[in-house]
Design a protein that fits this description.
252 residues; alpha/beta; Rossmann fold; seven-stranded parallel beta sheet; binds nicotinamide-adenine-dinucleotide
Length: 252
Amino acid sequence: MKYKNKIVLITGSGSGIGKAAALAFSKEGGTIIVSDINEINGLKTVSEIIKNNGKATFFKTDVSNFDMVKNLMDFIIEKYGRLDVAINNAGVGGDFAKITDITLESWDKTMSVNSSGVFYCIKTQIPLMLKQGKGVILNTSSIAGIRGLPNAIAYSASKHAVIGITKTAAMEYAKNNIRVNAICPVFTVTPMFDPEAMDKLKEGLSERLKANVPMKRFANVMEQVNTMLWLCSDEASFITGQAISVDGGLTA
Ligand SMILES: NC(=O)c1ccc[n+]([C@@H]2O[C@H](COP(=O)([O-])OP(=O)(O)OC[C@H]3O[C@@H](n4cnc5c(N)ncnc54)[C@H](O)[C@@H]3O)[C@@H](O)[C@H]2O)c1
């Protein structure tokens, strides 16, 4: 029970990696604030946690809206008075198009959720963690935050920004006992990355993507979540400012 009596916020926990993380941190004793723009899915995550005898509440947030992110933090302060672990995981894939074809609206939308969203979250989380005298933040970047991803300029730029935010925040607050790290998943089977949908887009695409991964397979969500469980725990107490790739060797 690594997270017994810990208050854990996970954005984007109505689906995919975030949902699996919410269930896993709850199994380890954490009290989970499930937050997502999708209320129906967020409430489903909460019901599953409660069905398994865990503790969770839902708070709807669009992370690209600073006032909503502030309301989320005000809710946490009022209900729990503390926040031990914040996992800023909500994200969108953005449109797949070449630089010459991508619209400005599409660029703005992806940047606002994936980059500004993480910035708004940490900006509101750090003051509470400073008051507590400690805290752990984990942001979800991507291998596209480490290397370029053709046809996904906004996604790749937004995930590079997540790493810049992570490293800067880690350096500013290391002396205050606040650790800030990022994970960089490779293709992980979730509603955002569905190999069957990829193949409908372009025949044989999923096999070609898989062939690029040295381990010759996609990740499953628990491979991302197990890294999160470790990185947010005291077992990783001297690790801060890192972008850890969970990628079957792709960025090696
Ligand atoms: N699946 C992959 O292959 C992969 C690879 C690298 C990085 N990632 C990153 O992992 C994170 C989780 O992705 P996933 O694969 O679980 O995707 P997913 O689509 O299954 O889950 C993303 C969740 O974020 C929520 N969300 C979207 N926009 C939001 C907003 N503005 N405010 C609040 N919530 C919002 C969605 O409703 C959804 O529940 C994302 O940041 C994604 O970029 C995923």
